[in-house]
Amino acid sequence: MDTPPDPPRSREKSSRALGCVVAACILFVVLVFAAVWSVSSYVGGVNARIADLEAGIRERGQPLTLDELNAYYPAVPDDENAALVYAEAFALMDAIDPGREQEAALWDRLVGLDPGAEVPPDLRADMEAYLDARAEVLAILDRAAEFPQAHYSVDFDQGMEMDLPHLAKLRSCARLEVIRGTVAAVDGGFDEYTACHRRVLSMANSLSREPAVISQLVRAVLHSIAAEALIRDLNRAPMPRDTLDELARLYTDCEIPDCLSRSVAGEWCLWVSALRALSADANVDRTADVQFMDAAMKKSGAAGVFQHLTKLRYLEVLKLLEPLTVADDVPWPERLRVASEIESAAEEAAFVNITAQFFLPSVRGAVIALAREAAVLRMTQTVLAVERYRTARGALPDTLQDLVPQFLPEVPEDPFDGKPLRYKHTESGYLVYSVYANEIDDGGVHWQRKMAEGSDGKRPSNRGTQDNGDWVFEVRR
User: Fold this and answer.
1) From 89, 170, 243, 305, which residue has the greatest number of CB atoms within 10 Å?
2) Are 377 and 223 in contact, with CB atoms under 8 Å apart?
3) Of 50, 385, 67, 120, which is closest to residue 251 (Cα–Cα)?
4) Is the pLDDT of residue 73 over 90?
């Protein structure tokens, strides 16, 4: 018996079903194509934006890779390199006092004296013995100060494992010079005293081109060691006019215009190189710090996704920190504002949170420390101008404007708020101070006292921090 033909309605249903399947397939292909095109366009946009930011950074002379960073730290001919001479002093210092116990004990006794207190005979004798034991080191430091440039042995290719042993040793040498200067001042040897300050400032200057945050912070510390020693010595006794004039000359133009961009260049390149390695689409050199992460991603099969997410983090970080490459051209209050915005944005950006925790330095902290260095140098220049005025006129100036133009070209600006540095008379002398990180004039209350008293100035509190109180130089005579 012949099979009856399908009813017309059944054939119509089959045709409709086939049409729906075909339409669905076409729609699926279109959606896939659109998705691939969108993703490709998005990835291309990310790559283009990264390329634009990197090009802009390089046009401003900033490095982005470890190779570029090594080239960014300029080489110096051996016969002009102070670092090679300082290395001789470091070796002798290590042989005499390997653990720096003698240095620490003597230094604590010296800086622990009350302002204006005479150096006790026993401390004076110990300081002289300390200097005698290091006579050869002192002779080398005399020689090193005559070299105009320095390039320490630093290999940025080592990444996070990079060693900078010269930094702590320079601090020890600066303390040694301060001890030598203190003895000279007590004996009235002010030519030697100014020479000691010149040598400490030369040590600080030897770090001026080293592109690492810690290097620039140590440079700032060396300036503080010298400036605070000067204030202690001014509290003990007045100095001759020619000594004050020479010290004023030495402390002029000590600020480094590009200290901020140079200070972050090392850290910038270290973690940028790590991020670029993790986000690379092809095989590139990877630092030891990221090899384990790379291997883990390959084993998990998530390497492609991880690379793209890392690339997004890298883009966000470039956008965040790009303003620092031009921050050297703006006043310090603007630099501080930019650093605060970067820190806030890094905390809020979804793609940067993990990166910020592991790779980003404390941008605001570094900027505050470098602004404090500028404040210390300007306060030192101001105190010396006040002392020169007092020597010439026999009395303290009523205001800092009285120092202009004979003793200062203009009243120095406070790096933290852009206003003139503060000056006030006290019962025993005067204060010169900066409002410091909280940008509030606390009336010359030093931040250390503010920490001890608490933010209300009446009772101890855990609210007192270095962000509270002022940075103060006081002369009690």
Assistant:
1) 170
2) yes
3) 385
4) yes
226: helix, coil or strand?
Answer: helix
Length of the chain as a residue count: 477
14 has pLDDT over 90: no
Q: What CA–CA distance (Å, rounded) separates 10 from 308?
A: 51
Q: How many domains does the chain fold into?
A: 1
Burial of 314 (0-12, 13-18, 19+ CB in 10 A): buried
Residues near 113 by Cβ (< 8 Å), separated by ≥ 6?
Answer: 119, 123, 232
Q: What is the pLDDT of residues 392-417, one digit of tens each?
A: 999 999 999 999 999 999 999 999 99
How would you class 263 by CB atoms within 10 Å of its CB: exposed for 0-12, middle for 13-18, buried for 19 or more? buried
> DSSP of 95-126, one letter per residue?
HH-TT-HHHHHHHHHHHTSPTTPPPPHHHHHH
Alpha helices in 280-409 (DSSP H): 288-300, 303-321, 332-348, 353-358, 363-393
The mean pLDDT value of the chain amounts to: 84
For residue 428, the model assigns a pLDDT of: 95
Q: Is residue 144 part of a domain?
A: no
Full domain range(s) for residue 369: 362-477
Contact residues for 360 (Cβ-Cβ < 8 A; gap 6+): 267, 271, 317, 346, 352
Per the domain annotation, does 193 fall within a domain? Answer: no
Does residue 442 fall inside a structural domain? yes
Spatial contact of 273 and 69, defined as CB atoms under 8 Å apart: no
Of 155, 119, 153, 251, the C-alpha closest to 194 is: 251
pLDDT tens digits for range 212-256: 889 999 999 999 999 999 999 999 999 999 999 999 999 999 999
Residue 77 counted as domain residue: no
**Cα(174)–Cα(194) distance, integer angstroms:** 14
Give yes or no for a cis peptide into 257 (omega within 30° of 0). Answer: no
Burial (0-12, 13-18, 19+ Cβ within 10 Å), 137: buried
